[in-house]
Each structure stands twice: as structure tokens, then as C-alpha cells.
Amino acid sequence: MDEVEVVVAHSERTTLRVGDLFLKVDADQARIDAEVEAMALVPVPTPQVLWRKPHVLAMAALPGTTLGRLGGPSTGTPAAWAAAGAAIRKLHEAPLPPRTGRAGRSRVELAAELDGECERLVTNAVLPADLVHRNRQVAEAALRPWTAAFTHGDLQIDHVFVDGDEVTGIIDWSEAGRGDALYDLATFTLGHEEHLDDVINGYGTDIDLDVIHAWWSLRSLLIVRWLTEHGFDPFAPGCEVDVLRSRM
After folding, report:
1. pLDDT by residue (tens digit) across 164-192?
2. What count of other Cβ atoms lies within 10 Å of the Cβ of residue 95?
């Protein structure tokens, strides 16, 4: 191996790959500690932790590939998406962890954060007002009572690895904790609505689709400005702004 691959990099954290070794460098040591603790508790496959030092976590690479990425085509079969749904259900049925995760923010806290972000998006002309207002209406359905589950908290499509139709591992557990199970399902299927039925089939229970749609809008509204400010492009085809447009 004669090169270092930058997997993701921004001002909060950076992940590097060197051969079969992943190095996660995080400005917040508490996030590294939370990730290791969560991986020790979950009943789904995770990367092997090789060592941990202040602000750096080393993990072995997982076999297989991700199901795809936001804004790109899915490389997974319907059966692979269903297997991911089954793995997510297994996680959600695990004993609750002691920590409240990103998916566990209160309705009051989320509503206040969402309203403030919507105002900034319109005031700063980041997005058209009608697009923001319509998606704020859709997002309201997510702000309802929910039963706490063990959630990943940042279950993006490229955090789930598969080999054929088998899930080989799930990565990036720093936001894990008690939370809303439908937040995980919505995050996982964001931008890949065509595979939502496959995921639900694997998950194995009835899902309120209005809440899934609401989380798509809510998550996208909250992250567009952050992505723009950190060098990512939420306006790229198939990404967050297209998700918001699809709700019009």
C-alpha cells in the first residue's frame, strides 16, 4: 500500500484508509469513546477495533462493499437491501443503551432547531422559501411521540457493508443511542426511495410512510447549510436538495 485514501474530511473529523486499516481522527474524544462503547453492545457485525488513542481510533476494514451512496446508483440487490432492513430491525430490538443518541432528540428541541434552520435557509437565500415551507410542513409528521429503540443515529447508505446478499458490517457508531427507529430507516433510504419497500420487507413490520417522508424532509433541511459550509454539495443530483424537491 503506497497511498493514504481520505474517506471523509471536515473540520470535526477525518477518516483515512491505509490498506486494510481505517483511522478515524476526531476532535471530540467523547465521540470516539461513544463509538467504541456502542459497537461493544450492538447485535450486528461491526469493524474490529484494533487500538484507540487520544483522538484516534483504528479499525480493521470490513469485507464487501457498501450498498451505494447518496447521489449515486445503488449497487445492491433487492435481497441485499432486505438483509440490511433485517439487520436494522435486529439493532432496534436490542436492549436499550444508557446513552441518548442523535435520533433521540426531543420533539421540542427538534422543532426549535428546525424552525431556526428554516429561517436561516430562507433569510440567506440558500433555498427558495416555498421549498423550505413545504418541506417544513412535511417534516411535522416526524415530531410525534415514539418508543425508544437502540438506534445508530447516522445510518447513511455508505455506512452499511454487504457481500452479496449478506450484511458484513455497519460502521460509524458515534451518534448511537436511544432514539426513534424510523429516523434510522429514513436516513438509510434517503435519496433511494426506490428501495424503501425492500428495506421494509426485510425489517418485517408495518412502517408509517408519512413519518419516513417527514424524516427525509427534516434531515435534509437541517443539514443543507452544514454540508455547504463544510465543502460538500447537497445540490448534486440525487442529494439532499433533490430530496426536498421531491416533496413538492
Report:
1. 999 999 999 999 999 999 999 999 999 99
2. 7
pLDDT exceeds cutoff 80 at 238: yes
Judge whether 81 and 198 are in contact, CB under 8 Å.
yes
Contact in structure between 15 and 8 (CB atoms under 8 Å): yes
| 49-53 and 21-26 beta bridge pairing | unpaired
Indicate the DSSP class of residue 158: G
What is the CATH number assigned to the segment(s) 62-246? Answer: 3.90.1200.10
Which pairing describes strands 148-151 and 177-180: parallel, antiparallel, or unpaired?
Answer: antiparallel
H helix or E strand, kind and range, residue 185: helix 181-189
The CA-atom distances, in angstroms, between 217 and each of 22, 185, 204 are 32, 13, 24
What does the alpha-carbon distance between residue 77 and residue 196 come to, in Å, rounded to a whole number?
13
Work out the pLDDT band at 246, boundaries 50, 70, 90.
very high
Q: Are 86 and 194 within 8 A, CB to CB?
A: no
- Domain segments of the chain: what residues? 62-246
Give the Cα separation of 209 and 205 in Å (integer): 12
- Is the distance from CB of 49 to CB of 57 less than 8 angstroms? yes
Question: What's the rounded Cα separation, in Å, for the pair 185 and 85?
Answer: 8
